Amino acid sequence: MRLTTYTDYALRLLIYVAVAGERGATIAEVAESYAISRHHLVKVAHQLGLKGFLHTTRGKKGGLQLARPAKEIIIGEVVRRMEPDMAIVPCLQPEGQCRIVPVCALRGALEDARNAFLAVLENLTLADLIRSRKKLQTLLQIQP
Questions:
Q1: Model confidence over 38-75: pLDDT tens digits?
Q2: CA–CA separation, 47 vs 10, rounded Å?
Q3: What is the rounded distance in angstroms from the CA atom of residue 118 to the CA atom of residue 80?
Q4: Cross-strand bridge partners of residue 25
Q5: What's 5-140's CATH class?
Q6: Are the beta carbons of 15 and 136 closer than 8 angstroms?
Q7: CA-to-CA distance for 106 and 84, rounded, in angstroms?
Q8: Which of 20, 39, 40, 91 could cross-link with 98 by S-S, CB 3.0 to 4.6 Å?
Q9: Predicted confidence (pLDDT) per residue in 87-125, tens digit
């Protein structure tokens, strides 16, 4: 199973904002901390805002804050909502075509693997990912 860079950035952005806490964060500081593109982060933050994970405020005093407590943000939900499709192989896509689909054991096994992967993430919250808050603040150079 492989997640897109988009989802990776979404998870890292949520971690950063959660660790930053009440003061929030800016796209610029997150981009600098992770050494990733501001342009991509703007798109990711916008989608996280639309999907109810972040509050985004534009302007000089703008920034990012969690839209709900970290313990209420389920990582499986974030992944499901950020990934364009969870099809590991083309035959798992809704329009997927393959001659052997009616009897294919591989397709069922891959569906089971995908579901197991997501089930693990459904048991994780953003709060679980930031338990080492002080160490994360140091690594990400976040001033409390």
A1: 999 999 999 999 999 999 988 777 799 999 999 999 99
A2: 9
A3: 8
A4: 64
A5: mainly alpha
A6: yes
A7: 22
A8: 91
A9: 777 777 766 677 887 888 888 888 899 899 999 999 999
